[in-house]
What we know:
- It is a single chain.
- The chain is of the alpha+beta class.
- The chain folds into two domains: 52-202 and 314-343, FepE-like (Bacterial polysaccharide co-polymerase-like); 205-308, Helix Hairpins.
- Helix content is 61%, strand content 8%.
- The protein contains 13 helices and five strands.
Amino acid sequence: MEKKPVNDNVDASVYQNDEIDLFELWNGLVEERLTIFLSFLSVVVLAVVYAFSVTPVYKATSYLLPPTQEDVIAMNELDLLLGSNSNDYTVEYVFNAFKTNLESRQNLKMLFNKYNLIHAYVSDYEAFSGREKIKAENDAFNEFIKNFSIVPLDKKSVLNGFSISLALSLPEEKVANIVNDLVKMAQKRTVQQFYTQIHSEKVTRERQLKENIETARKVELDRRLDKLARLNEAIAITQSLNIQKPISKGPSLNINNVNRAESQSFPLYMLGSDLLMAEKKVLEARKNDDPFIENLRTWQQTLQQLENLKIAKEVFGVVRIDAVATYADKVKPKKSLILVVGGVLGLMLGIFIALIRRAIKNRKEKLSVV
């Protein structure tokens, strides 16, 4: 079998076609330098126009710390007065409640409406109507929620505080004011929430004590009337039997152990009419049963203390503002970054166009030679 001769000239030409001549490539780019420059300049100009025409977005931040132990003492005064050592309003509980109000969608919605922030997201909002307005407002509010963030200063415990940030396409001073207003709103809402709880508990406790006192007085009056009824029956018996003095037989009885006699089912008439009439006269002359009501003075004392207790919500401390939002940082657009990226993209685009133009030119030259 004969071997086919190898065509060295053909292989050499193939290798030469596969190789890239860097000098020729560089010369081609130099020849197309105007194209590269114009492409670079066009993209940079577009980047400059974008960077200086887009509405800037400012981000304001406030740093918040939990209240001190002294700040929550006023909230626990009611429990202390009632003899409870639970101290429900701890620093952690109070601060968590404040954080909950801070990120509450209801509070954020109130802030959104107060500053009419819909126009910061939808410029032509007034042109909408009906359901379009509702949808646009919902979408804008959801975007507003995304631009609001709470970042803990230490993930291990909320007691180490956290920061809140808000980014808006509004003047930096206004963004800072909105952040500070949000903190005040959450603070006010939390204080009012605790005040309502404590005041409601105070009113409920006062009502219970008043009901206890009123009920005890009514019961004690009924007991006195019941006792008078028993005395009247016993006096009638003594009069019919002509018993004036206590009967000598049996246990020694006197006016001081009438109750004990009753509890032993001992007939009252055996005390004699003199003792029974004396006790009846005393009971009928009684104007006030309070001294005979057990626990009455304790209830009255507690009630008086409750009525004198002033819930001063203005001293409630639910948060400490470590740093208010005094200014806002520009987060968009980053002009220097946009210009750098625009320059790189413009240069790449120019080189790409130059290579395409060079390839087309070389192809035309080869075709003209053939």
